[in-house]
DNA sequence: TTGTACGCGTTATCAC
DNA sequence: GTGATAACGCGTACAA
């Protein structure tokens, strides 16, 4: 029951190892007599031979392995994407190794190094803040790469994203249509483009509707201090003067933190305050009011990202492509007029 | 910026590849002049040389890769374990590749094959139902293996578990102490030992306290039909005659499904019904009553499982060990006397 | 310190 | 037409 090598199969079939390789890979058909081919296949099956992928990889200079780096694996968005990407890649004969950068540029760099030393064929990355330099280095080394979720306009890399600006516009329009006039936003203090886009969509839409967007209705949150920052920002928005009548959380994590505060403060949702979140969270399951949220096309992102990377790997000279998928606003009770 | 090999370093330093290997691996210290060693290290750094782990693996017949197979990656329990195991293994120089068996014996077998063909050094597995035969095969092939969460008493394999029987006793005692007399249980229809143990702990404890455990208070759920089965079981338990005053969900997934039903039926928790869950779920975040649940020592399981596997890999002849960690009952409002 | 035979497949080249 | 030989890929570690 020891692991068998191609040599074992060759001996059992009474041929050279070369022939075994040819037959099992269905190459050089016609150049090999069907009789010996059958003998080889039989021997391989009887020995339960499985080619050693390490040896294959060394020879072929390809591991058929993809490195996936997500922003934060504890976030449903990331774990869902990881599941979908793994499955899509498996269908195409690739193995995915997963790393979580935990929104940290250092960790991201370490993961890239780790995966490179393991000779991954390509990367799928949801970039953390301040990782542009690392990504640029990868691109310079011509490592196949596809970005998703987050991306840098300055970077000439393949990317699969949604239109964060437009999604935010939709959210804001939705709240305005529900009669809200003092719409607050909770956003990260970040250099990440896609998050800035969410903020921009909100601001532009308000302006377009001649609605105020005072600083008191814009809450910036430091990612390392979410709970306190969210609480502080909400308390400002809910203070007597110019009290907010709606709040748009630009991420699910912000929404969870925010909703906990709102529950503590006994704020009626959607009665006195409408709420919208970007992305889902399992936590929403039992929130008393079903939550309105922006739903990203996870399956689409996952499959697109994989096929884009594979085509890049197959034709290294192919040019950069970027694809924008549509997000959907799922309107539910939390943002409806009560 | 092309990838450098050991040969490049050797040439640049004007030595043989053997020396480079020795120096970079800190072998044969003293037998190599410090001057050339320094020259080699300098050359390696300048070329940004990273050894090709594929070649290393082929030569050493070790990949320093661990295959982790979890039951269901969408479950918090699994994803947390995956995160912890990956991190623990990384600290010790191992890479973890993750697969989700989705509670399916076929998928589990496919993952084992996939990982074996990738020459993982060992496995960490939360076994799905009906996978005993596959695991036995692995053991026969002397593949290092550690089981966790689920295990088979008949299998002589390393294992890290909790005492499910005792945890269930604790849950039941807790409910009894809270004055509950008609305690229902929702459990999977399964051959998995650890789940049967949970049921056994509940039954024994009831019997010990001379409390009834009629069939109407025991709900069996098929894993492929959770929603309906849970709803049906709960409706029986809540029917007028001999109505349950407490319910013990033997998994977080069952609890989530069950709580949705209970909310629909307008059952007051803990007012008319106390509830306990095994394991947590993000969904519990906003359930109106904080949920009492059995908390498993995830960090402990994760680190133990990794160190157990590594010691097994380092000394293949070492004998089977199994470790039982303690679970804690986190008592909160959902099971307190109202 | 160095040469080189490994590990295990793949594939170009050579032989009958 | 059929098949074998051998040179890779890249580190490692033994013999010299």
Automatic annotation (TrEMBL), chains A, B:
Swiss-Prot/TrEMBL keywords = DNA-binding, Transcription, Transcription regulation
Protein biosynthesis is among the record's keywords? no
Task: Domain (HTH lacI-type): give its ranges.
Answer: 4-60
Q: Which SUPFAM superfamilies match?
A: lambda repressor-like DNA-binding domains, Periplasmic binding protein-like I
Recorded GO MF terms: DNA-binding transcription factor activity; transcription cis-regulatory region binding
Task: Determine the domain of life of the protein's source.
Answer: Bacteria
Q: Which SMART domains match?
A: HTH_LACI
The record's annotation in Pfam families points to:
LacI, Peripla_BP_3
**Which InterPro entries does the entry link to?**
HTH_LacI, LacI/GalR-like_sensor, Lambda_DNA-bd_dom_sf, Peripla_BP_I
Q: Which PANTHER family does the protein's record reference?
A: HTH-TYPE TRANSCRIPTIONAL REGULATOR GALS, LACI-RELATED TRANSCRIPTIONAL REPRESSOR
- What name goes with this protein? LacI family transcriptional regulator
Q: Which species expresses this protein natively?
A: Deminuibacter soli
